[in-house]
Amino acid sequence: MKYFLKKHSKEIKIFISLGLSILFLTFLYRLYKLGILTNSDKLYDYIGAFTYLAPLIFIILKVLIGFVPFIPTTIFIVIGFALFGQKFGLFLNYITGLMTAVLNYTLTRIYGKRFLNFFLPKKALKNTKVRQDKAQKDLKKFYF
């Protein structure tokens, strides 16, 4: 079993990534079809219907929406304040913003270079690396 996991770890990671991506997109599509992502009243009713689990559902939805650029998070911020009050709404919005930032940073650190290698030619990556190194040298000269 250990040998199998070691030998096929790349394929397993790709399979898990694709599975989670499909699950995420299916979830967003269902929410969109129900009108929850486009109508703030439906979103308010949807999250409010969970009563005790509403903060957890709000956190999950807002973190997931943070990965999709075409859905405005402003609606979620306003609904967070309306559902949970000023202090708890601010706390939940702060926590979800922090979680989204940490997840985006982590995903970029893990998959960023491979993602760029997939979409950009080698020459463009080399030029970017040269410019980045030059900028770092200039910054070091500025500070020191």
From TrEMBL:
Keywords: Membrane, Transmembrane, Transmembrane helix. The chain crosses the membrane at residues 12-32, 52-84, 91-111. The keyword Membrane applies. It comes from the Bacteria. This is TVP38/TMEM64 family membrane protein. It comes from Anaerococcus vaginalis ATCC 51170.
